[in-house]
Batch of 2 targets.
Target 1
Amino acid sequence: MNYMPGTASLIEDIDKKHLVLLRDGRTLIGFLRSIDQFANLVLHQTVERIHVGKKYGDIPRGIFVVRGENVVLLGEIDLEKESDTPLQQVSIEEILEEQRVEQQTKLEAEDRKRYIHYSRDGCRGSRKPGGAP
């Protein structure tokens, strides 16, 4: 195998299953169908995988075009080991509810921290809980 610079090295990965981690934190899994010099990707049979604790759910997304600047990580999935996961797959509805609860818990924790800092500092440049000035 010869070395190919940049995204040209991914030509051999066309038609293989990949996991893509995006800048916004989303995880996509699909078959890589196309890539260009800017690392823009086309994924086929794509699912968005949501992880919460030891559970995960897959939301079908179909064909997905990803702008290269949004890709944080791209990795080939070993199809033989794909099912060897300690995580439990749950329904879309259940994982979305778990995600909502997790996000609400994080927001409440951030609000408590903000409140503590605000009450400790008084009005000196801090913001009130809930983002109010």
Target 2
Amino acid sequence: MLGKLRYVSVEHYMNEAIPKTKPHKKQRKNNWFYDQRVRILNNRINAARRLNRRHPTDNNRTLLRKVVQSTRREKKNIQEQKWIEWCQGIDSHTTLSSMWGKLKAVSGNKRATTPSHSNPQQEAEHLALSFAMRSSSTQLPDNTIHTLNSLQPEREREIEQACLAEADTDHPITSTPANKDTGLTGTPSREVRATGA
């Protein structure tokens, strides 16, 4: 008897700790136009339903009907606005798969996936600006900035000299046969000319 009780309690705690199914994100039917405004409207309806359920009076029932009617109108407006925004976003670069995916989501045949952020473009720009500001040389200590500024003219002078210096490989390529001395086409290099070969 004691062994059976232990097994039942272990099984009970095991079922609580280890889910039997893979948890997944709840998908809403109105996922393609769901945003903060829709969430607020749903909260209004739920609050009116709770009030009507706790205190079922004629006034609360009337209030619930009015709230449901007004939120349906507002949701319809939001839905139309999102549809227009999506249609305006279609251009020559829009893929057919994204268009068909949206159409299936709107018709209810397929659930659209919600982005990980409500406005990914704005968040990406914010992160890029934040990174640019944090990695700017103005964030360095004053003595480091002073050292960089004092070394800048010397570095620019070295770069300019390197650009103006003529390298051994800087010679035109011609259709003449290869030179026996250097193995290169065209005229012999300066060192070969200097040695007289």
